[in-house]
Design goal:
Chain A: One of its GO terms (molecular function) is aminoacyl-tRNA ligase activity. The complex is a heterodimer of chains A (302) and B (83). With 302 residues, chain A is of the alpha+beta class. Helix content of chain A is 40%, strand content 25%. Chain B has one domain: ACP-like (Non-ribosomal Peptide Synthetase Peptidyl Carrier Protein, Chain A). With 83 residues, chain B is an all-alpha fold. The chains are: A alpha+beta (302), B mainly alpha (83).
């Protein structure tokens, strides 16, 4: 924990992250954003020729889609819902009174149709499903979004609102697992090219509760999730900066994603944790980008 | 025990086939048991037999077939008797 707090304090002192008073909710400096922009250009360079269809969604998604996704079955503790005041003028008066005396004014807020996006690819599946069957070549999509996960922490690498860049592949089992393997190889090469020390390991999602323990064990037993790990605030427990997920036909079945021959599509996604990658670079090379190794600078800004 | 497991499987398994038609050794995942349904089955079994699965038995193998579930539950019950 101490290492996490001291790195966070150094980031604040250097002005790279901006304190807001809430753990895991930070502003970013122009310099911090420039590193993220440079890394995204690197991602474009590596993956650009694959011809993915780019889509951008805001960091909120249709609550109905969120409910269908089953997120609440697995990660109820991480979800963030958007609530608003929907009352009358009289209700407004009691709301103000409640705030004035310091009571809980949020308890009468009503759920809106919007839920904060938990992963950049969540709005994609229903969007693609609406289009009908996938073409013979399958589907490849590129996304980036701020994502929300309710897990307040002093670890700068565990933020509540952060950006995820993703590639999502839909097709046959072979097609999507090849895609995943290709990005595992590319991810290692990319991180090496900017001077980051990485390992890849089998992983599991943070499923909720004891039932979640079983889901996590199942995920590991079937090698469904791998993570690319880089030491940021701990060398013993390095941070996941990329993840490589094979969903089998779970999303295909859930959303009705079909291939041209009518079979259910398999899907896989590869995610870059953009803030985490920037933090790994700052942690490894120092808080002043001008002093970063020349070859890493050349790859990012050359 | 076999009967109770079959009853619970019928109730929470969500299988597209009749549980009565499944052999004890039949692969439940191949029969359509989803990972979420396997979790619900795990919780239902814990309640019915008043047991708690230790972490090392919370995996696909423990719930792969009716006989695998029987074996897992028996192991837990036996361990409890011995304790």
């Amino acid at each position: 924990m101490d290492m996490q707090v001291s790195f966070l304090d150094r980031l604040f002192d250097a002005g790279l992250l901006i304190e807001t008073g809430v753990d895991g909710l930070y502003g970013r400096s122009g310099q911090f954003e420039d590193v993220i922009a440079a890394f995204e250009r690197l991602i474009d360079k590596v993956g650009g020729a694959d011809g993915a269809e780019a889509m951008r969604f805001p960091p909120g998604m249709n609550r109905e889609f969120f409910e269908t996704s089953g997120y609440m079955k697995s990660f109820p503790q991480l979800a963030g819902t958007v609530h608003s005041f929907c009352g009358s003028e009289l209700d407004h008066m009691s709301l103000l009174k409640c705030m004035e005396v310091g009571d809980d004014w949020t308890k009468d807020q009503q759920a809106t149709d919007i839920v904060l996006t938990p992963a950049a690819c969540y709005p994609l599946y229903p969007t693609v499903a609406r289009r009908g069957r996938l073409p013979k070549t399958g589907g490849l999509y590129e996304l980036q979004s701020y994502c929300f996960r309710h897990e307040p922490s002093k670890d700068p690498a565990r933020q509540q609102l952060f950006r995820m860049r993703e590639y999502v592949c839909m097709g046959t089992e072979q097609h999507v697992t090849d895609f995943r393997q290709r990005w595992m190889d590319r991810g290692v090469e990319m991180m090496k090219s900017v001077g980051l020390d990485v390992t890849i390991d089998v992983a599991n999602d943070p499923f909720f509760g004891r039932a979640g323990k079983m889901l996590a064990n199942n995920q590991r037993d079937q090698n469904l999730k791998f993570e690319l790990l880089i030491p940021i605030t701990s060398t013993a427990k390095p941070t996941a900066c990329m993840s490589f997920n094979y969903h089998q036909d779970a999303f295909g079945t859930k959303w009705g994603l079909y291939l041209e021959d009518g079979s259910t599509a398999h899907t896989a996604c590869v995610g870059f944790g953009l803030e985490r990658i920037a933090l790994a670079l700052f942690h490894t090379h120092g808080l002043d980008v001008k002093t970063w190794p020349e070859n890493a600078r050349a790859v990012l800004w050359g | 025990m076999n009967e109770t497991i079959r009853e619970l499987l019928t109730r929470v398994g969500g299988l597209p086939v009749a549980v009565s038609e499944l052999e004890d050794g039949a692969d439940l995942y191949a029969a359509g048991l989803s990972s979420f349904a396997s979790v619900q089955l795990m919780l239902a079994i814990e309640e019915a037999f008043d047991i708690e699965f230790p972490d090392n038995l919370l995996n696909r193998k423990s719930f792969a077939s009716i006989s695998a579930i029987e074996e897992t539950v028996s192991r837990i019950l036996k361990a409890r008797e011995a304790a």
